[in-house]
Amino acid sequence: MTSFTFPLLLSLKIAAISTVFSVVAGLWLAWVLANRAFPGKEFLDAVVTLPLVFPPTVLGYYLLVLLSKNSALGRVYESVFGVPLVFTWQAAVVAATIHAIPLLVKSARAGFEQTDPVFERAARSMGANEWRIFWRVTLPLARRAVVAAGVIAFARSLGDFGATLMIAGDIPFRTQTAAIAIYDAVESNNTRLAAALTLVLSGVTLLIAYTANRIEHRRAR
Amino acid sequence: MKLEARIAKHLPESDDSAGFALDVEFSASPGITVLFGPSGAGKTLTLDLIAGFARPDSGRILLNDVLLFDAAAKVFLKPQDRDCGYVSQRDSLFPHMTLRQNLAFAAERRPRLERHRRVQEMIDRFHLADVAGRRPASVSGGQRQRCSIARTLLTGPKALLLDEPATGLDANLRAELFQILLELRKELEIPLLYVTHDLDEAVMLGNRMLVYEAGKIVQAAEPQMVLSRPANAKVAQMLGHANILEAEILALDPGRDTSRLRVSLGGGPMGELRGPYLPGHLIGDRVRLVLRADELRVHGSGGENRLPAVLEKTVERARMTEFRFAGDLVVLASRGERDFRNWFVEFPPEGLRVLGAT
Questions:
Q1: Which terminus of chain A, N or C, has fewer Cβ atoms within 10 Å?
Q2: What is the residue extent of each domain of chain B?
Q3: What percent of chain A has pLDDT over 90?
Q4: DSSP state at residue B61
Q5: Does A128 touch chain B (CB under 8 A)?
Q6: Taking CB atoms and an 8 Å cutoff, what residues of chain A touch B149?
């Protein structure tokens, strides 16, 4: 692995894993916010939105405090996996996931709320339980919004910089993602590496967005 | 199989609604019970409360021996557990599934072997074999409607709730839908509740008719009974082209089943009419008569039971002409050479009914 391929592959790996995590958590949160009425719902909605509006460094600092070796969560992680979480690529996954969730929730919730309730009512009167209704009716009907949300989450994770730098650091060949490597390369006047990484990162993002759009349009027909 | 409901629900006033109170009590036996009335009278809300999509404030709902809702006992079954088939006004076939998949979705609670057979039976019965592999968007409105009903039947409902299912269908498709419903009425031993504001549908399909007005049931009877003896002026108006006439009873003859009535047309000249015997009334009583527009006749000369009237205008309709006379008297009669100088309206004795009598 070179200083060119390592950051790219690491970024793709982190983005892929964090997209899975954020889709699972985001869909659940979106469904709860769209379908359930409970006290504190608007507060939960606001908390979910926070990572979107925080400066990345603030978010990163929060995560650092929350997950450091001396914190409760950090100790739990260390006792399970044997190593501390902070300044590993897994920490970057956490940062990217937290950053991607609000985008996913916003988009998926809008999708769920735009779905005509007549279909869910019909399914209920046919005796289908809520779990089946979600998988067989709600989610397929909102799939455009969900796929779009997944793509945005992936792109967001791929490009995460501030929070990742705060919690995972900038350790070449360990936690240095493409976005951070570009910054490093520019700092050390290695413009060729910076340009190459930028080009590849742009190309990958474009390809993903384009493919997702194509799949969606084919299904819609 | 019987559905008994006593439900009340209050929808508070808000920015986009004036507030509404529903308070009804009825029971429905096997056959079609039509919930008839103007928009916003609470018909659809009643169905929603029975289906379990909303919770009534008070009352109880009993389907056969199963308590679906009881405010006092705090029983509220989820829609999933109510065995109420629901066909909504808007097309509710899942757009992302083929017709066959839609049917299979409804049959999923049945044993695996039976499932396939039952779905195929429905496809055959409702003539969907050619289009079973297509999605709802690419089949006709009639096929969608048939599939909706087939899908509901597959769950084996113990009551069927139909919310204006004929809305948006053209005349042919409506006729086809009514045919299906009349067949179901014959073969299903369950109550069918049918919401409509169309009088023809109510009379054609209903074994019984519940007339809704502003959240209350103002009359519950067979459709023919509602037609001939509307409970009050509001009901008479809902039936369309109903004329209301103030009358005074001059004579009563139970032996010959006749009466003599003095009426006035909208404050115009008084006239006398022969009517049927009016049991329960005395000479000198003032009563209100309800007269159906299609039972009155127009003439160019006077005669038995005819009164002069002043024609204000005529309106051409599809099959009839509507004659509007001074004093809000409306007559529906077939077209023809009708260019009279003087107009007379004939009131056949059998068409003179006292409002509110049953």
A1: C
A2: 3-231, 241-354
A3: 40
A4: E
A5: yes
A6: none
Mean pLDDT calculated for residue range B102-114:
89
Is beta strand B75-76 parallel, antiparallel or unpaired with respect to B242-253? unpaired
Task: ipTM value, please give it.
Answer: 0.77
Touching check for B222 and chain A: CB below 8 Å? no
Contact (CB, 8 A) for B140 and B170: no
Band of residue B358 on the pLDDT scale cut at 50, 70, 90: very low
Comparison of pLDDT for B141 and B58, the residue scoring more: B58
DSSP secondary structure string, B282-333? -TT-EEEEEEEGGG-EEESS--TTEEEE-EEEEEE-SSEEEEEETTTEEEEE
Handedness of CA A135, A137, A138, A141 (dihedral sign): positive
* DSSP, residue by residue, B39-53: TTSSHHHHHHHHHTS
Tracing tokens 């127009």 back to the chain, one arrives at B298
DSSP type of residue A137: I
* CB contacts < 8 A (A, B): 59
- A124 to chain B, any CB pair closer than 8 A? The answer is yes
Which of A15-24, B165-174, B259-268, B291-300 bottoms out in mean pLDDT, i.e. has the lowest?
B259-268
Question: What percent of the residues of chain B are helix, what percent strand, and what percent coil, each to the nearest 5?
Answer: 25, 35, 35
Domains parsed from chain A with CATH numbers:
5-220 (1.10.3720.10)
Q: Which of B307, B297, B291, B290 shows the shortest CA–CA distance to B333?
A: B297
CATH code for the structural domain at B3-231 = 3.40.50.300
**Cα–Cα distance measured from residue A177 to residue A9, given in angstroms and rounded to the nearest whole number:** 8
Query: Nearest residue of B to residue A141 by CA position?
Result: B96
Instruction: Say how far residue B260 (Cα) sits from the centre of its chain.
Output: 34
Sheet arrangement for strand B343-346:
B297-299, B343-346, B306-309
pLDDT digits (tens, 9 = 90+) for B204-251: 899 999 999 999 999 999 998 888 788 887 888 788 767 888 888 999
How far is C-alpha B11 from the geometric centre of its chain's CA atoms?
Answer: 24
Asked if A129 has any chain B CB less than 8 Å from its own CB, the reply is yes
Q: Residue range A168-186: average pLDDT?
A: 90
Spatial distance between the Cα atoms of A127 and B261, rounded to a whole number of angstroms: 59
Closest CA to B7 of B32, B33, B43, B31: B43
Asked if A26 and A219 count as a contact pair (C-beta separation under 8 A), the reply is: no
pLDDT exceeds 60 at position B77 = yes
